[in-house]
Structure formats: structure tokens, C-alpha cells
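Components:
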Amino acid sequence: MNDELHEEIRAAVGAILKGRSARGGFDAALWKDLSDTGFHLLGVPEEVGGSGGGLRDLAVVVDLVAFHASAAPVAESAFLAGWLLAQAGVAVPGGLVVASLDEVEAHRRGGSLRLSGRAAVPWARHADHIVVLARDGDEVSVAVVPVGELEKAENLAGEPRDIAVFDDVEALTAAPVGVDVDDLRLRGALARSVQLAGAARAVLKSARQYVAEREQFGRPLARFQAVQQHLAALAAEVTAMRISADAALLAVEAHHRPEFAVAAAKATTSAGAHVVATIGHQLHGALGYSAEHHLGAATTRLWSWREEFGNEAHWQDRLAAAVVAEGSWWSTVAGGAR
Amino acid sequence: MTATIDLAAHRPGDSELRLRDEVRQFLDDQRAAGAFRPRSDAWMSAADPAFSRRLGARGWLGMTLPTRYGGHDRSPLERFAVVEELLAAGAPVAAHWIADRQMAPSVLRNGTEEQRRRYLPGIARGECFFAIGMSEPDAGSDLAAVRTRAREADGGWEITGTKLWTTGAHFAHAIVLLARTDGAPGDRHNGLSQFVVDLPHPAVHVRPITTIDGEHHFNEVVLDHAVVPAGALLGERGAGWRQVVAELAHERSGPERFLSTAPLLETWSSELRLTDPVAAREVGRLTARAWTLRQLSLAVAAALAAGRSPEVAAALVKDLGSRFEGDVVETVRRLAGIEPRPGADGLAGLLADAIPHTPAFTLRGGTNEILRSVVARGLGVR
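Structure:
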């Protein structure tokens, strides 16, 4: 809850990220800058080798990386892999470490844990280590494995969305953990909500500048009421996305109905992505449709992230189930006893 | 003004959660006793002075007023919790709504000591109801075009003009008017003042305006050389526009801007089983939207409580929220497949209440087009 600290993080990370937007790939130089300053492991406890700080400190970094459309996997690294490691008390290994989004079968042989199966591991091709939830019967562990065989794929934004293939791979370290793959995916949905809100803010910022500068029919686009109405609708949606991500972070931090809040936030931010991308492109005209323009770096991410960790339909169904279970729509929305 | 509207999510405190439960219990009891039937848009159309007095007796009106004026020294966020529960339940709150929401803070801020003592305790007891005379035949969205004129006369004021769309003037104990005291209509925002006129008044004629649903909630109020005492001036002479604008953030951002049709959604979803996947998904969609809207509305309330005036954010909440209210009606109507029947029990009656009200959602309190132009100006492009 330290706003001043957040402003300091915002300023420092913003200075590192400024101008470093990318269409896909991995910005190794940027990652080095983030690593040198420790921002790549913010929100991960110092006991496991992280930089310390809370969830919302880390969210500031995740938001800014999304806002600047930088090719740096802070969400997959600190937000997901770092969280898993902290849950199990396993030290953060060196280099770039990312999380497997799927649980993998495991068995013990001669004192070591060996993993077999396929798992989605975003950014794996650029990583040194993968953190995996490994299941051996009823026991779930957090395991660290080196990056091995991969099937490469990308999302619409060109971000690596690789599949790791484990064929009797020995874990470097492993420790039992009390969370499961549903918890991990909820955490992922929270990360993507923050990222969607960040990318949406970038679209608004760009649109606002563009309509003020671009002239047609002898006046700036901003002088046209039709354009003003579009811009206001865009600002409203972007603000709604931001506040839903913020509120979900607060709910998770306070352990106050975190599943419901994250579901509502991901449903909101995923649905908002369409509104934001549509109005954003409409306001930028043909220029924003060029690969050279920065707008596409934000909108292709919106179109990708809205699907990842469950799109709005997935989370809407979960929210409906919560309403039925609670027996009252309003007390589901507002919380409190009935 | 930064690239986004500057708001921070609010985490409710224990007292807000406790109050919420108290109000829910009270409303359950009232419903069980047959004191009210949930209605959509009840804050606009369901006036029940006895119910208002019961809320006053529980300390749930004039909550944020100081105790010396009969209030309860509660925080705006505690009031928010109470108001939200009343709206979600579709309780009959229309009688006191304007007095509690707008006139209590306005009289406290702008009124003289005499005006405060005259009106505030009654508002907090649920015994003093207000109407607001803003719109006129030639001044709708363009409020600065008001022609109602107040002239100094015999140590008081003489007011002449016509107000339209004045909610609840037929039962209100007083009306607050925006009138021109100085300058000419061309002076726009300058020279306007606010007055409190006690009702009934021999030279103030209140005539009903019947809406498309056949109901009477609005009025035409004609002031025919109505003489009022000097003490009727509210706030500063000539500062009426500034005073009105300061009220707008309260008027536009509250939970009534997204919860007007909540009783309809509550009733429909309570009959829902997950057997209909289409309906379930729509409930989920509206649930996410409502949750987000209340985070926005709460954030504005928190900003107001912190002494800021988030006028742009409030406009934005009303734009999103009022569109959501219509979305609820359309979604329930489409999926329920029940013909609306005025006066009927259950969904058929709730739909009959809600459907003819939908045009009003995006008109009242400033049309959504005007609100968006307020947002555009806030973004620095107008």
C-alpha cells in the first residue's frame, strides 16, 4: 500500500523501458538491465534469492513492461516461476527462469525426481531453466529442470509460446508444494489482467497523441466530435480495465475472495481488449495498421493475452457458477454475508 | 490529467462490511413484512415516505452530516455501502433520494447556518424531501441557457420561469432552483445563482409530466413572480454554476448509475440453474461488468472522500454504468422470453417496469454524449 514506493519503481523501471518496444523476440540487453537492477525478481522473497517486495510492487513492473510493449518475460519469470519457487521454498536458479503452465507426470528413481510429458512453457527458447509443477501420485512438487527439447510456436504478437517435451528428464532440484495447477493458472490470469490493462493504456496514450497531431480537412482530428466520442469511450474502457486489475491485486493481497476477483478482472480485461483494439485502430486510421507503427505492438498483444489463461467466456462461466453457488447475484458481486 | 483517469481501487473497511450486513438484514425483514416489493429504478420511481422515515430512524439518511445538524458523522464510503444495498434490493427510496444524495452535502457546503438548521435535520430524519429545478424548455443538455430569472424585490427575491423534468416536485417540501440573477442569457455561466424555495408556494405551480409508461414522476414547475425571502439564496450570488458543477461528481458517479436494474438481474439469476449455458455465460458477463463498475464507482467515492473532485472520472462512470443498466434489461428480456406485464408479479412485472425506463438511463443526469465530451475535454483534446 505504499504509493510513494510505487512511484519510485514506476520512474526507475519506466526509464529502463522507455523506447524499448518490440514486436516479438526477446530483448536480451533489456533483460540484462532489468536483472542488474533486480527489477526482474521484484515481488519474489529474498529468502529464495528474489529481490523482495510485494505483489503490487511486482505488478507495477509487469504493467510497465506491457505498457511499453517490451520483450521481457517478467510475468512468466517473477510473477509465475518466482511465485512457484517461493511457494516451495526452492532457490531461484541462475539465468532466465520461466514457468511451465501445465502440470507434468513425475516419478522418483534413485533419489531423483524424473519428469515426462509435454507442457506449455512461454519464452522457453530464451530461458535457462523451467519451473514445473510435477505430480507423483498425490504428491505435487515444484521442480527445476534445464531447458531441453522444445516445439516452437508464437502468439499473434510474436511472443514465444513454446511447448517443452520432457522425456524422463531429471529435476535439478525439487520440493513438495501446497499449490496446484489451478492456483498457477489463476495467478497467470491475474498477470495477464495486469498486462492487458497496461497494453490498453498504451493504446489510449497513442490515440490521444495521434488525434491531437494529425490534421485532416484543415483541422486536428481531435476537433471532430465523432473522434472525441470514440476517444472518451476508449478512455472509459481502459479505465475499467485498469481498475479491475487493481482491485484484483488488492483482493489477492488481502486474501479477500481472490478467485472471484481474478475471474472478474480477467473477464473484464479480456472483453475490453476488443473494444480497445477496435477503437484504437479506428482512431489511428491506416497509419496505425502499418507494421512500422508502434500501435500494432500493443494491439497484437491485446489479441493474444485475452485468450491466454482463459478468455472472457471461460471466466464468465466460472462467475456464473459462483452466482449459482452463492444463491444471490448481488451478494456474489458485492461480497459480505447474506 | 494523465493518460488515464487517476483513480485507485478501494479496499472496503470492516465498518463498511458490517453496515452492509445490517442493511441486508433490515431489508430482508422489511420484504418479509410486505413493506415493499423490489422494483427496477426504484430510486427514481418508488417513493414511500414511511419507508424513508424508517431509514432515517436507523441512521441511514444524512449519514455524512455532522451530528449537530442531525447527521451521523459517517464516512462517504459507509454511506456508499448503505446506498448500494438499498438499490440492489430495489427498495422504495425515491422520496428522500435527491435530498439525501445531493441537497444534504450542498446545503452543508453552501448554506447559511440558518438554512442548515432549517433543512438538514429533516433530511436526516427522512421527513424533508427535495426537488431540483435545473432543466427548462430551452435548456436541456445546455444548462447554461436557463431563462428563469430572479430579481431583488422587497428585501427578498421574485422568481419567474419554467422548470421541466423536475423529479418529485409533487411531494417535495422544497425545490432548489438554478436561476439568473445577473447579466443576460448570453453571459452563460456567469450570473447564475441557486435558490431554495419552500413548497407548496402560492405562486409556484406544479403540473405532472406523464412519461411513456403512463407514470408520473416528473413535473413542470412554473414560477409566476414567486416572492421568496432573502434567505432563500443558496450560497453565493452569481456562483450558481460553480456550485452546481461541484455537485455533479456526486450525482454522476453513485451506485444508482449502474444498479437501477439490479433487482431484475437478481430475480432472473435466482431462477437460473447452470442447465442453460447461454444464460449462465450472460450472467457471468454481467457479473464481471457489475463488479468492475462498482470498483470504479467506489474509487470515485474514495476520491471524493479524500477531498478531490473527480469530475471526469464521474462522467466516465455514468457513461459505462448507464449503458450497463440497459444491457441488463436487454439480456434478461432476450433470454427469459417472458412478455412484460405491468403490475404482474415476478419477472413479467419487473420487465414491464424496466423496459420503458431504458431511454432515461442514458439521458438523465447529462446525456452520455455530453458526458463523453466531458471526458474528451479531461483528456485534453477538446
